[in-house]
Write a structure and sequence with these properties.
Order of helices and strands: HHHHHHEEHHHH
Helix content: 55-70%
CATH topology of the largest domain: Arc Repressor Mutant, subunit A
Structural class: mainly alpha
Strand content: 5-15%
Number of domains: 3
CATH architecture of the largest domain: Orthogonal Bundle
Number of helices: 10
CATH class of the largest domain: Mainly Alpha
Amino acid sequence: MGKELTGKQKSFVYFYLGDANFNATEAAKLAGYKGSYGTLRVVGHENLTKPNIREAIAEHMQQFAMPANEVLARLSDQARGSIEDLIDVDGYFIRDDLKKAKERGKLHLIKKITFNDFGGVKAFELHDPQAALVHLGKHHKLFDRAGEETPNVKDLAIKAFQELLAEYKDLPREIVAERVAKRFNIDSAELITEAVN
């Protein structure tokens, strides 16, 4: 990290990420900066432009950020989630099933749960698997434009290959093909063969 934060700057970062809920003016006020609302607003803004404060905020945010692979893994889990992960063989959801679901790492599949007056499970709802599939489909660009047919990947790769060959005439076609093939996740030798025909 760059320049060390002062005590007030540390407080600003703490409150900005906490009680101030990303409001720089409120974070400045809570951190002990003095002045009118306008002054605190300027101080908050200036603090957010200082590299050492931005870096400290980014470091704290990184600790709580979910990596992209984890997001995809959780969505995949929700898409594959089944009521079978949570109920017993007779179809009843009993308290022991919560323990079993926890042991199997499946509690995150439950979106909502209500209990009866006796502490038993009255009802539960899983996260919507179709919604998870839609998010995964969007990530994998399975349906980029509603109502339109997804273009043939090979045709797009051939077009890109031909355009790049025309633009970079000095590069060997094998190198261009390799880069295009990697981008479109296809075989480079097949790309060269298809593009020549």
